[in-house]
Every structure is written in C-alpha cells, then in structure tokens.
Amino acid sequence: MNGETYEQQIAVNGFAVIENVFTDREVDSLIALIQQADSSNATFRKTKDLFAIRQFLKEVPDAVPAIFTPVLIAKINALFGEGYRAVKSIYFDKPGDSNWFVSYHQDLTISVKEKADVPGFGPWTVKQQQYAVQPPLSILENNFTIRIHLDDTDEHNGALRVVPGSHSKGIYRPETIDWSKETEVSCNVRKGGMMIMRPLLLHASSRTTNNHKRRVVHIEFSNQELPAHLQWSELLPN
After folding, report:
1. What is the pLDDT of residue 24?
2. What is the DSSP letter of 167?
3. Contact (Cβ atoms closer than 8 angstroms) between residue 66 and residue 33
4. Residues spanned by the domain of 182
5. Which pTM value belongs to this model?
6. Is residue 113 part of a domain?
7. CATH of the domain at 70
8. Which of 167, 166, 162 is nearest to 198 (CA)?
9. 208 is a domain residue
10. Into how many domains does the chain fold?
11. Per residue in 172-228, pLDDT tens?
C-alpha cells in the first residue's frame, strides 16, 4: 500500500496482508494434521456449508509447532513486541459449494473459562460450552488477530471484505455505515500468507462463487491480564 510498512497499514487501516509466511510444504503438513483430528468432540461443527473447530489449538495440539514457526514468531514480535499470547483459535473450512456468508460486524467478544460478574465486562453469551463476553474497549483495541490461509483466497471464495480505518472508531454498528464516506476492500491472500487485523475492524465474508475451498486458521492474541475471577479460555504459554 504505497510503500507503507505493515505497522503503518495496521495502525491506519486496521489490517495488513503478509504473503509467504508458510511454505507450501508447511501448509500441506498442517492440513494433514487437521485431517487426522478426532472430529467427534463438541468443539467441532460440521454442516454442508462449513466445517469449524473451536479451541483449535487445544483440539489439535500438534498444530501448535506447525503454526508457530520461527518465521511467524519473528513477524509477530517485530510488529507487536514479545508480550502477546494466543488466547483464542478457530479453524474454518469453507467448501467450494458453500453458501455460508457473514455480514459486516466487529469481533467484540473474548473467550473466557467461566462466567463472573466483573464491572465493565458484558453482555455474556455461551456457544458450544464456551463463554464469551464483551470486554472494555481498551482490551479490544490492543488485541490482534492473524488469519493463516491454507488456500488461495479472493473475493470469489470468501476473502474478508473490510472497511479500512473502522477499527479506530470504537463500537461501529454495521447498520450505521455511511457508504458515501467509507470504502470496502477485499483482503485477497494466497496460500501460505496471512492477514493480520484488529478485532474492531468491520469485516464480512461473501458466499463462494468459484467452487474453490477456503481454509483458514484464525488465532487471536492479547497482551492483557484479565481481572480477578476471569481467565482466558485458551491462553498459550509464551
């Protein structure tokens, strides 16, 4: 983007795409590990339009060293420093004939182990035995997400569509988007690349129209300590 660094892109636009983070061989090895996983647990969701694994790094622990390669760790540390840890992970497999889509939204919740009445945290939801809560904005503003692409992805098979700069506007209700002022960008990513985004970035995903799969590993990171009585549900060690 006009010679901007990845740090500048993330600061200004709320996202960046970095190609060639993983080799084809590394991606294929990761796919093989996923295919060997026991899909009988409640954290696995399988429908005609989507296969998803929640708490992915817990359910497929062999994927941890396959994902956290020296190259990935170096890129994350260079962009954000060394204080961040993975706190949530999901694997998405969108088949080539999928009609699954997601309308514009921000990622406003974090996943925690147990529900607790803590000022500034709420409302609460539960999905597949997983507690989610909306934390104070300061936590969301500091968190970031990486989306590792295991397939070439563009606007025809569900690449994220985003509103650049929307991450800096606090809670931004999708129904209030003024398209005369805002723009939309498709975040196309090749196999082995990754997209980095802030949770407050408005993003959406369209139906697949080219019959190509879209497999993505979604991992959220935080450098925040939660208040007493609240614990991250998937906190990985440094």
Report:
1. 98
2. G
3. yes
4. 6-108+143-222
5. 0.93
6. no
7. 2.60.120.620
8. 167
9. yes
10. 1
11. 999 999 999 999 999 999 999 999 999 999 999 988 888 888 899 999 999 999 998
Q: How many angstroms separate the CA atoms of 185 and 177, rounded?
A: 14
Q: 43 pLDDT exceeds 80?
A: no
- Is 21 part of any domain? yes
Q: What is the pLDDT, as a whole number, of residue 44?
A: 65
Residues 6 or more apart whose CB falls under 8 angstroms from that of 73 comprise none
Measure CA 73 to chain center. 16
Tens of pLDDT along 73-117? 999 999 999 999 999 999 998 876 667 788 999 999 999 999 999
N- to C-terminal Cα distance for the chain? 32
CA angle 197/20/189 to nearest 5° reads 50
Q: What DSSP assignment string belongs to 175-229?
A: GG--TTT---EE--B-TT-EEEE-TTS-EEEPPP-S---EEEEEEEEE-PPPPTT
Domain membership flag for residue 58: yes
Q: Which residue has the tokens 């098979």?
A: 157
